[in-house]
Amino acid sequence: MEKGVVIDSRHTAEKEGQGLVARALTVDYGEGPVLGPLDLDLPERGIYTVLGPSGSGKSTLLRAAAGLLPDFGGSLSYGGRPIGSAGVAGADIRIGLVPQNYGLLPWQTAIANVRTALKIARPDESRARRGAAALRWLALTGLSGLEGRYPRALSGGQQQRVAIARAFAIRPDLLLLDEPFSALDAVTREDLQRLLLESWRQQPSTMLFVTHDVEEAILLGRKIVMLTAAAGPPVLIDNEAVFSLADEDKRDHDAFHEQTRHIRRIMRERR
Amino acid sequence: MEVKAEKKTGKTGVNGSPKNSPGSMLLRLLSVFIVLHVLWGLIAALLQRDMLPSPLVVYRALLELDGGEMLLNIGTSMGRVFAGIALALIVGLLSGLLMGRSPRWNKLLDPVVYLTYPIPKIALLPVAMLFLGLGEASKIVMIALILVFQVIISVRDGVKAIPANTYDVLTSLGAGRMAKFTQITLPGALSSILSTIRISLGTAFSVLFFTEIYGTEHGMGYFIMDAWLRLDYPGMYAGILLFSGVGFLLFVLVDLFEHRFMKWRA
After folding, report:
1. Which among A52, B44, B164, B239 could disulfide-bond with A227, CB atoms 3.0 to 4.6 Å apart, if both were Cys?
2. Judged by CB atoms within 8 Å, which residues 168-227 of A form the interface with B?
3. Where are the annotated coiled coils located (chain A) (predicted)?
């Protein structure tokens, strides 16, 4: 079994349809580069966990992909369409963002939060259709009966479920999650990891999941993108061996432990 | 399972304590109302002077007031207050939202606000009368002029207090300016807008009183001052009571509005 091959990411794009492509991506807030230069090819419909120590620019990469950075160097595109600076992205690339703080609007109920996102992402769909989609995803995320609650009256785990429901309900091309479970307790986190994988299987999109947790990266990712603190090329690690296992078997399987050791070794070497 | 556990924690709201129920609030208001009247009655009985009639005399005078005429007085005053507040809100909301959202506009307008805020606007009353005459215009503009600055400042600070990342999800969806404004900026600043309206109401009433001393034959301020000049003290106090009652009703109205739109914060 061959795992953890370091792939030069330039040459892998064509097979599965162009997904997220970065070319010489650099981000600089004026005090030296925060990210890059970075080349990445992440084909469509994959789950990519982005792993890296703090300061490796993993959240910055996500914000750039979300179209939230006013300025960056190099280019970033999805399916051949460029992701520009703030506000330009949404027109033809639908982005479902799940931030660490859930990003719910506190003055809107759970269902209203989902509906608002849908209204912006799918303005051409009928109200009824959007309402049905919102209800469906809230039910799928286990929030039936809580649709009318304001975020204040929901627990952290429930709020994150709403954020996940919202991200999936818009049927995004690109699903971006920024350490979404890091503020949750271990049990809730595992439930939500499972929920996320189930939701993705129902409706696969290109998913970028930023985390600093090695185990989480292995449990969720089909490929693992490792960023390093010192600017250098990212390492793409194939995680198919773990990904293809049933969710409940993953933690106990040898492949999981082997992958963990492998990644820790790379982290040590690359520091 | 876990969902059940979450449901339980979700229910522990803040508004559970019985002390804050509307019934007990009403009771407390009523007791203050009664205590104030008892105090008033005591002082009146002690003083035994025309300038402070007893509550009974005043309430009798209140009942004897001409209903149609009082309605006209109240209507005229309310018209002025609402026009003044509306004007202040339109100008204040626009500039406050602009200053809160755009650092460039804030840089431009902040010194203007800073410099003009401390001017005692009521001192500009003669200027307003000179330029706008003794009619409605000067009254409404005076009210608006005094209110607009506090509206600008509180709206701007309310908008600034919205964390920048609140906009992230909608921005990444490609939301336009209008959507971001109606979904985030406005509801996010609504609480400051409502408290500024509440404060404005009190201020507007005081200013109204001043402006109704001149150039008008209707209005609550006019009625009270007129009763004073006619030495009709029970009528004067009746006017003050009525004026206060109207103010109280408006206050309650703002509260109901807040209750309706601030449910998310409760």
Report:
1. A52
2. 170, 176, 187-188, 191
3. none
